[in-house]
């Protein structure tokens, strides 16, 4: 078994759609980023790469590379999982906590879980997403952006 941890944060930027866990969230500003700004997927990718000791999201998909401008993070997650599997690991489970004052995430959590599970090719029972506020503390609590913490557990897999 191998455990990995991922973290990401992005600030809100008006005029962009908000995509979290591959799900379009209505009526909320998007996130400033070179890619689509899917902060939840970015944290999960870093947890997966971390568990496999394969570097990080920036080393695989550099934000200096025009190739990744506006990139669909779901496709980055698919690519990351492909690399992790290629290194001989299968995903046991992924667990993420999304911290923001808005939007309220509960109505979207199960759709995020199923969308993420689809990108990773695992059952929805292996994917957890929890939404929290920061109790109005600090910049996240002031509504400036979204922070995500994620962990991933991998198992060595001869078959994949
Ligand atoms: Mg990011």
Give keywords.
single chain, 160 residues, alpha+beta, 5-stranded mixed beta sheet, two-stranded antiparallel sheet, 5 helices, 29% helix, binds magnesium ion
What does this entry look like structurally?
This protein is α+β, with helices and mostly antiparallel strands and 160 residues long. 29% of the residues lie in helices and 31% in strands. The mean pLDDT is 95. The chain binds magnesium ion (MG). The site of magnesium ion has 5 residues, from strand 1 and helix 1. Residues 8, 10, 33, 39, 42 line the site of magnesium ion.
Q: Kindly report the spatial arrangement of strands forming the biggest sheet.
A: 4-1-7-5-6
Alpha-carbon Rg, integer:
15 Å
The SSE order reads: EEEEHHHEHEHE
Structural class determined from secondary elements: alpha+beta
**Care to count the β-strands?**
7
- Unreliably modeled segments: none
**What value does the average pLDDT take?**
95
Approximately what portion of the residues adopt beta-strand conformation? 25-35%
> Which ligands accompany this protein?
magnesium ion
Characterize the main sheet.
5 strands, mixed
| End-to-end distance | 15 Å
Number of helices: 5
Helix content: 25-40%
Q: Label the overall shape.
A: globular
């Amino acid at each position: 078994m191998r455990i990995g941890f991922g973290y990401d944060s992005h600030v809100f930027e008006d005029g962009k759609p908000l995509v979290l866990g591959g799900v379009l969230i209505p009526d909320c500003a998007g996130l400033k980023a070179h890619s689509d700004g899917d902060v939840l997927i970015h944290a999960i990718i870093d947890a997966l790469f971390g568990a496999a000791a394969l570097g990080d999201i920036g080393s695989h998909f550099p934000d200096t590379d025009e190739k990744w401008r506006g990139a669909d993070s779901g496709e980055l997650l698919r690519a990351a999982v492909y690399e992790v599997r290629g290194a001989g690991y299968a995903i046991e489970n992924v667990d993420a906590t999304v911290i923001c004052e808005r939007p309220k995430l509960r109505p979207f959590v199960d759709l995020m879980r199923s969308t993420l599970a689809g990108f990773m090719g695992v059952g929805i029972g292996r994917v957890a997403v929890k939404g929290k506020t920061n109790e109005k503390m600090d910049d996240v609590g002031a509504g400036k952006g979204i922070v995500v913490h994620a962990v991933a557990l991998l198992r060595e897999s001869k078959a994949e």
